[in-house]
């Protein structure tokens, strides 16, 4: 089977990382991948060896030349199907190109926001099928009018060989100056409003009253960086909150956390939640989107925007270290059971076969079923 993937994001995390996992798994099963991605993305290099890569400049939803560029590549490569992974111009424009090329078109939906109701019928008519990475996203699609028969749920994955419990607080102390006995809370997210950093900052005074030695690490980058730095200073939290920016050593850093917090207003699933759970870290997150599918016995869910509930849930985890350790064990077991790379690859492969009616060559049996 030959699959043409389109991922126009500029960073190798979140959806782009899932595309890398998927192409590696497909290549390992003997399938062929072709990838169109942004030349600025590390994915262009990371995909070498598992895909034929076309790297170009992409310009988002208004990148109308993408239609012609992708159509020409599809005519040249003649894949069995087109798999669109990104909303950054790739969904609508990619769907048009796929239709012009006469190919089955699959869209992976990774976000749980509602779309303008008038746009949904013409947009989703471009796609033969839609993969939702969580049941929460699938519910949003159905609420927007997409037929349930057109939706499959294939959860995102985490590499549990890379993300695993390997706590090294001596390393963290050398890296950050945080003493091994100090509680460490982390938040891994883009610095954008919907991720809810402001709720975490607002909850910290109550938490610090009970755990005055706690340290908070904010990992990620985005347009809110300057505003968050100003808010941290204005609220007198500069000695307790550190902004570490984008880190490429998350597999080493995450296991050092005592707690991961994710107070997002909405979230498709949350790759950082999967990574933390795989590292044995308990989680406090909002009860929204796909997050309840990751946070079960391994943490606490709070209403989005409820600062008091957020502070209480964080304190509850830090108050009970033995229970927190058990939560971490349950979280790792959960991701190994439900969010493995093998299951994600098999789920997408099952959708491919469904779209192609069983006519394309298949080199290996399925490893899992599609929900």
TrEMBL record:
Gene3D superfamilies: Glycogen Phosphorylase B. Residues 14-161 form the Glycosyltransferase subfamily 4-like N-terminal domain. The keyword Transferase applies. It comes from the Bacteria. Residues 174-332 form the Glycosyl transferase family domain. This is Glycosyl transferase. GO terms for molecular function: glycosyltransferase activity. InterPro entries: Glyco_trans_1, Glyco_trans_4-like_N. Keywords: Transferase. SUPFAM superfamilies: UDP-Glycosyltransferase/glycogen phosphorylase.
